[in-house]
UniProtKB/TrEMBL annotation:
It holds the Pfam family MarR. Residues 37-169 form the HTH marR-type domain. The keyword DNA-binding applies. Keywords: DNA-binding. PANTHER family: CONSERVED PROTEIN, HTH-TYPE TRANSCRIPTIONAL REGULATOR RV0880. The keyword DNA-binding applies. The lineage of its organism: Bacteria, Bacillati, Actinomycetota, Actinomycetes, Micrococcales. This is DNA-binding MarR family transcriptional regulator.
């Protein structure tokens, strides 16, 4: 026991003294706060990954896989692109992208043409059928999501709006 009537390292019962300061209590809460942030990050990651997979599954069809749809959607947004740029965007190797583009070309969804500035390169662009596949996939995904949102209460939709705004502010960097 120390002279103050409590064991070494323990705070006095009345909260007085150095061990009982609010700063000490805040430092003691830091590991708990860090654990809470880690738990939230892990749960958010799980929810976002599963949600992303579910949404991607609603854009795929028997003819177009989710990764293929992602390539088509990129081309729809960006216009024509090189296979190397597509591989970088999709985080796949160039040979994997070449095989994927071959399948999409066989399906009539993309066309390849010579690069005007570099004869060693090709450019990939959507065909009309590819554009139609992107629009149909997006419509299917959007319809599925609208149906799910239609099943929740207005109060829950308001919470989802607020959560969506918060996620946007937290996770998506503003464009300059």
């Amino acid at each position: 026991m120390s002279r103050g009537g409590h064991r070494e390292g323990e705070a006095p019962a009345d909260g007085a003294g150095p061990a009982g300061t609010s700063a000490d209590r805040a430092r003691a809460d830091e590991p708990a706060a860090a654990d809470g942030v880690a738990e939230l990050a892990a749960e958010m990651q799980r929810v976002l990954l599963v949600s992303s997979r579910i949404l991607r599954s609603h854009t795929a069809s028997q003819d177009v896989s989710a990764p293929q749809f992602s390539v088509l959607a990129y081309l729809h947004r960006a216009g024509e692109s090189t296979p190397g740029s597509l591989a970088d965007f999709e985080h796949v190797s160039p040979p994997v992208m070449t095989r994927m583009l071959g399948r999409l070309e066989e399906a009539g969804l993309v066309r390849r043409s010579a690069h005007p500035g570099d004869g060693r390169q090709v450019l990939v662009a959507l065909t009309d059928a590819g554009r139609a596949a992107v629009l149909a996939g997006r419509e299917e995904r959007d319809a599925w999501l609208r149906s799910r949102l239609g099943e929740v209460t207005e109060a829950d939709r308001e919470q989802l709006r607020a959560a969506t705004a918060l996620l946007r502010r937290t996770l998506i960097a503003p464009r300059d």
